[in-house]
Amino acid sequence: MPAITREEVAHLARLSRLALPPDELDTLATQLDEILAAVAKVQEATEGNPDVPATSHVMPLTNVYRPDEAHPGLDRDAALAEAPAVEDDRFRVPRILGEEA
Is position 27 within any domain? Predict the structure, then answer.
């Protein structure tokens, strides 16, 4: 008898918005039970064993990004000097939503 029942699989399917045929519920219950048994075995082997460090990933992860460095940006006048149109010290762009200003 699997620890996961047919009704629990049907409930999970409803929550996941999956339409499962009735004949698949028993098969999935057995498969999910086997998966949980495998996870329990791994947990038994690692629980309370100081030689097995807790990890969230099998492979060590390293940050591949460079460190952030602050650099001076363009000042307002230099940025606006390259704009095709300027109005009130801002970029002037065409209206696209038809809203009143």
Answer: yes
